[in-house]
Design brief:
cell membrane; two-stranded antiparallel sheet; 4 strands; Probable membrane transporter protein; transmembrane; TSUP/Inactive_protease-like
Length: 307
């Protein structure tokens, strides 16, 4: 069953898109990530132009994250005060990122930038998370208790403008959360991601937040940053394909509810190592696609001429 996507200018199987949206929704509910780090490359792989994939995926993340955060709000695992601080930084970063995206699109370099950003960030974050998660899992199996990470980052506690975050049990400066939020906002605009694969490790290892609170808080911030990013892309770059977004949203909302339930049955270390493995797998596939010679040497040029 094919459907025509007017902005992307191609026909795609509806069930395939619905299935991709569902998979990303499950990830959103389980790990507290928007899932864009996986969905956007998957859209590349099925032929969606990178500029359209980035802008449209930001739209889909809003729905799957909203569905996931409702479940976490019921469990009281969302730090709303921390979420608002992250959101302020995220909106600033997203506004800057959209302008960079538009400038690079004008000179025809946005597709390469997006793919290189994915390879760089996914490779670094996936490797760090994988090594750390293995160590944590090994300690947990041997009966050792991992020391609370927030006490290691003494420089965080020395920064000014401190605020108490009761749900997370923290009393730290607002500057680290603001900076994390800004970085995630830039990534949301340029890469079409919620930024959870950056935010979740940063909230756990830099800010010292409990893993169960991190997931819901990350989703809360992602909703608003990606909604703002979608609006900016739609009005600045005109690259949001609503037909594509609606199909992905339907799958994402259903998947997020399933993922939230699945996540409740897994330990924090297991969740982190699964996320790390998926990040590394996507990174490897993107790197191979850039390095290997395409089977049709003229396909890139043809696509460029069509656009």
């Amino acid at each position: 069953m094919q459907v025509y996507l007017p902005i992307a200018e191609l026909s795609v199987n509806v069930l395939l898109l619905f299935g991709l949206g569902g998979v990303v929704g499950v990830l959103s509910g389980m790990f507290g990530v928007g899932g864009g780090f996986l969905m956007t490359p998957l859209l590349f792989f099925i032929g969606i132009p990178p500029a359209v994939a980035v802008a449209t995926e930001a739209n889909q993340i809003v729905a799957s994250s909203f569905s996931g955060v409702l479940a976490h709000l019921r469990r009281r695992t969302v730090d709303l005060r921390m979420g608002i601080v992250l959101l302020v930084g995220g909106l600033i970063g997203a506004a800057a990122g959209v302008q960079v995206f538009a400038a690079l699109r004008e000179i025809g370099q946005v597709d390469l930038l997006v793919k290189l950003c994915y390879i760089l960030f996914l490779g670094i974050i996936g490797s760090l998370m994988f090594v750390e998660s293995l160590n944590a899992l090994r300690k947990a199996r041997s009966g050792q208790r991992a020391p609370a990470r927030r006490h290691r980052h003494l420089w965080v506690h020395k920064l000014p403008l401190k605020m108490k975050f009761r749900t997370s049990g923290l009393y730290i400066s607002v500057f680290p959360p603001l900076c994390v939020g800004m970085l995630v906002g830039v990534l949301a605009a340029i890469m079409g991601v919620g930024g959870g694969f950056i935010m979740v490790p940063a909230m756990i290892y830099l800010l010292g937040m409990p893993t169960k609170v991190v997931v819901g808080t990350s989703l809360f911030q992602i909703i608003f940053v990606t909604a703002f990013t979608t609006l900016m892309h739609a009005t600045t770059n005109y690259t949001v394909d609503m037909m594509l977004a609606l199909i992905l949203i339907l799958g994402g909302v259903i998947g997020a509810q399933i993922g939230t339930r699945l996540g409740a049955y897994l330990r924090a270390e297991q969740l982190r190592i699964l996320l790390a493995l998926m990040v590394l797998a996507v990174c490897g596939k993107l790197a191979l696609d850039l390095l290997l010679t395409p089977t049709e040497l003229y396909s890139v040029g043809a696509a460029g001429g069509h656009a």
